[in-house]
Design a protein that fits this description.
Blueprint lengths: L1 E5 L8 E5 L9 E10 L2 H7 L11 E2 L3 E9 L11 E5 L8 E5 L3 E3 L6 H5 L2 H14 L7 E4 L5 H12 L3 E6 L4 H7 L3 E4 L5 H8 L5 E6 L3 H9 L1 E9 L13 H9 L6 H7 L1 E5 L9 H16 L7 E6 L3 H9 L6 E5 L6
Parallel strand pairs: 9-10, 9-12, 10-11, 12-13, 13-14, 15-16
Antiparallel strand pairs: 1-2, 1-4, 3-5, 3-7, 3-16, 5-6, 6-8
The structure holds NADP nicotinamide-adenine-dinucleotide phosphate.
NADP nicotinamide-adenine-dinucleotide phosphate binds next to helix 1, helix 3, helix 4 and helix 11.
Length: 343
């Protein structure tokens, strides 16, 4: 098999292909011949030594993929060789062959291509659990989606639309036309516009009911101000740590010092909530993830969700794919092709 590993921490060029023996599934695992892998921002952070809990180099990366089951462990009953599946994986999906626990595998919906299957699990489950499990998002409410043109952002737009929500999205200016096409009511260029003022204008001074914010310290302060009564701010990433191609001590210190502090008494008297979400830290709460997957598959069957795929790179160009995302060129998901003709 071939896998893409981080040979050391650093710029995208540290991603290299290496050859290994094919893995053998353990009793509760399936072995999948991978076709496409979805790249997630956390992998860029792991490559830059900015993601606590990620394996140390040399190590494979990757949290999701889509392929065909080749072999099953002896305790696996729900799947068989030949099944097309989407899957979660813990740092193993930048590879042609992936062994993963049967509980992390989802049958590929009939309506989905293999590429859509690779662009689905992580970002849709993240958006769904934030919006509906934590955020209690309802019809007619307004959501502010930061990073609206990204993987999680485009998934959240489709979910908000499926509920009949009003959507405000922030992104780089060039993505606004595409965001409007997806159903965003108000777009804000966070680089040049006053986000707080634009949100107040768009909501008649009321503020928003739900905000999902992966940007970091300074943005969380602005987001908090944008909340309506009973509004909820969900923090779920910190992209401000990522500046340049590799880890920078001063950038990280600046970001740590910019973190807001919330006082419980203020949260109470202002009727605002601040919550955190981390899919990678949900061990022991698998039934909650499964409930989200079931809800999502219902929406897929109703034709309400269709992953936005921006670009597919052959796995031999994983470094270029990481750089593309870091250059903020993606609208939706970027995939790696691990299929037979990928090289
Ligand atoms: N907590 C969780 O469980 C969880 C799960 C999934 C993802 N996440 C987080 O959610 C965020 C989005 O993830 P994603 O995989 O969907 O990625 P993504 O949104 O596709 O990320 C790329 C986009 O982020 C924006 N961006 C903001 N700051 C950036 C920076 N410093 N460097 C490069 N791009 C930057 C750019 O768009 P614009 O310029 O248009 O804003 C860029 O195109 C990430 O922070 C990720 O870690 C968290």
């Amino acid at each position: 098999m071939k896998e893409v590993i981080i040979t050391r921490y650093g710029s995208p060029e540290v991603l290299q292909v290496r050859e290994r023996r094919n893995p053998t599934p353990r009793s509760h695992e399936v072995l999948v011949r991978n076709q496409f892998t979805g790249i997630n921002f956390s992998e860029i952070m792991a490559r830059m030594r900015l993601y606590p809990g990620a394996p140390k180099p040399p190590a494979c990366l990757g949290s999701e993929a889509c392929g065909i089951i080749e072999q099953v462990g002896r305790e696996v009953s729900q799947f068989k060789p030949g099944d097309k599946v989407m899957l979660f994986s813990k740092y193993k999906s930048y590879a042609t062959h992936i062994c993963t626990d049967q509980n992390l595998v989802i049958p590929l919906p009939e309506a989905f291509s293999m590429q859509e299957g690779a662009a689905f699990p992580l970002v849709y489950v993240t958006a769904y659990m934030m919006m509906f499990d934590l955020g209690n998002f309802r019809e007619g409410e307004t959501i502010l989606i930061h990073g609206a043109g990204g993987g999680v952002g485009t998934a959240a737009i489709q979910l908000a639309k499926s509920m009949g929500g009003n959507i405000i999205g922030t992104s780089s200016q060039w993505k606004h036309e595409k965001l409007n096409e997806l159903g965003v009511n108000h777009c804000i260029d966070y680089n040049t516009e006053d986000v707080y003022k634009k949100v107040k204008d768009a909501t008649g001074n009321r503020g928003v009911d739900l905000i999902i914010d992966p940007v970091g310290g300074n943005n969380w302060k602005i987001s908090y101000k944008c909340l309506a009564k009973m509004g909820k701010l969900i923090v779920y990433g910190d992209q401000n740590f990522v500046k340049g191609k590799s880890f920078n001590f001063f950038v990280s210190m600046k970001e740590l010092l910019s973190m807001p502090k919330y006082k419980p008494i203020d949260l109470m008297s202002r009727n605002k909530s601040v919550m955190g979400y981390h899919l990678g830290r949900l061990d022991g709460a698998e039934e909650k993830i499964q409930r989200a997957v079931n809800g999502l598959l219902r929406l897929v069957n109703e034709g309400k969700l269709s992953p936005v795929i921006d670009k597919v790179f052959p796995y031999t160009q994983s470094a270029e794919a990481h750089q593309y995302i870091q250059d903020r060129k993606n609208f939706g998901k970027v995939l790696l092709n691990f299929g037979d003709n990928a090289e």
